[in-house]
Amino acid sequence: MSEAAKSITEPSIPRRQIRWPRAPLAYAQERMWVLYQLDPLSPAFNISLAVRLEGKLDVAALKRALATVARRHEVLRTTFDVTADGQPFQSVHPYPSYWPLSLTDLRSLPDPARDAEVRRLLTAEAARPFNLQTGPTFRTALICLEMDHQVLLLSLHHIIADDGSMDILVRDISVLYGAFVAGTPVPLANLPVQYADFAVWQRQWLQGDVLQKQIDYWRRQFADLPPVLNLPTDFPRRPGQTFCNEREIVSLNKELSGQVKELARREGANLFTTLLAAFRLLLHQYSGQEDILIGTSIANRNCSSTENLIGFFGNNIVLRINLSGNLTFRELLARARNVTFDAYAHRDVPFETLLDTIRPESRNDRAPLFQVMLVFQSAPLPTLEVDGLKFSLLDSRSETSNFDLVLYMHETGQQLSGHLHYNTDLFAANTIRRLRDRFQNLLHAVATDPGARIDALC
Predict the structure, then answer these.
(1) Dihedral sign (CA 66, 69, 75, 79)
(2) CATH class of 228-381+394-457
(3) Assigned fold of 14-197
(4) First to last CA, the chain
(5) Cα-flanking dihedrals φ and ψ of residue 95, to 5°?
(6) Where are the alpha helices (DSSP H) in 128-247?
(7) Which residues contact 337 (CB under 8 A, 6 or more apart)?
(8) Can you name the residues that pair with 157 across neighbouring β-strands?
(9) Given CA atoms 219, 220, 222, 224 in this order, what sign does their dihedral have?
(10) Which residue among 6, 18, 83, 398 sits deepest, i.e. has the most Cβ atoms within 10 Å of its Cβ?
(11) Measured on CA atoms in the order 363, 367, 369, 371, is the torsion positive or negative?
(12) Which of 184, 177, 283 is nearest to 230 (CA)?
């Protein structure tokens, strides 16, 4: 364990001393603002979530809940612009007395046509761009399927939210709705800070020696960059990055999930690093490359005051795991564990700052620094029932990326599952299915014999 990893402590974030409506952008927001400027009409960074509502719905209570959640979280009523000298800032607008909720009634359609129209509406909303300067950056819509069956659509720009924020949003809406229907006090404690407070604090804290020590670590890690990852593709790369994505479900059965968990326990690793080591080996099998960079997305909520806060806290970090040395899988797993631990100890460096520091080769046909990611997500939000109304997620959370391949995994009960998100301009669906099956076979092999040499596993 490195000294840097030992020194991780929880920071304390104060409230802004002056409650002015303007605030600087957090580093992650600044990166998103730059990307937005390149193509304001792109839906690449939209986040859409569909919530199934089953039971008797009080629409007035739902509208009140939406207005109150926007009052509770300043970032939901925030827009973005630049000063006269070109510096971006975020403006918090007054909280609304009501929330605009567009309504679409599909009850007159037959079942097959109704389902198709729901999918069309969800796809269209996910593709509708946001105007970050005029707002809103948070949109809602209600689709009525039957008297006791509705779909609530929540859409946000990534500049104000991350994956963890969506679970907070649904949970807060359901709690507020229940309180308003029952006529009881809202059982949510006041938030200790707002996202703009975090942005101000981050700008003041992440500088000087604090920033330099972390940057020095990444400079050492990438003093020499490995060749770009070259996975065999079904279709040739075209100039410019594309955002045509599909996904393939990955589901480990209970037996294999148990074997992977037991392997992690025996080797003193967590599930993420165990899956990472196996995924790293899989990429080696496909590319033949020993030195590969894999990205991952982390929540980066390092303070208890941000745990229940909607906002863009996530950051991308890069994991460099070299397979040289005729390793066993057990040795590869230990190497992956150490690399991950040290990377997490230096996770505060914004990804854009990291790119400016490392300066990888600029190519317009792929993402910079790494092209493949592994993301271990929190378990999907369970079904919530409030005053006879069930809140459950439709399988429609949009994920758009500019990476070649992203493996999303999570743990639900006794099973590990997720999906492979891939660029359809590079890979055919059958290729991704074979890659998924090979990954599952590889997990079984390494769980059975972690002492096997990786060359033998290949």
Answers:
(1) positive
(2) alpha beta
(3) Chloramphenicol Acetyltransferase (3.30.559)
(4) 30
(5) -75, 145
(6) 163-182, 195-205, 208-221
(7) 268, 269, 273
(8) 46
(9) positive
(10) 398
(11) negative
(12) 283
Rounded CA-CA distance 257/249 in Å is 15
What CA–CA distances, in Å, run from 78 to 136, 191, 308, 455?
A: 8, 17, 18, 53
CB 271 within 8 A of CB 252: no
Same fold, 14-197 and 228-381+394-457: yes
Residue with token string 């994505």: 245
- What's the predicted TM-score (pTM) here? 0.86
Sorted by sequence, the CB contacts under 8 Å of residue 178 that are 6+ apart come out as: 386, 387
Domain ranges of the chain: 14-197, 228-381+394-457
| pLDDT tens readout for residues 108-140 | 999 889 989 999 999 899 889 999 999 999 999
Question: Average model confidence (pLDDT) for the chain?
Answer: 90
* Amino acid sitting at position 354: L
Sign of the dihedral defined by the CA atoms of residues 105, 109, 115, 118, in that order: negative
Per residue in 268-296, pLDDT (tens digit) is 999 999 999 999 999 999 999 999 999 99
Tokens of 144: 């009525």
Bond preceding residue 360 cis, omega within 30 of 0:
no
pLDDT of 367: 82
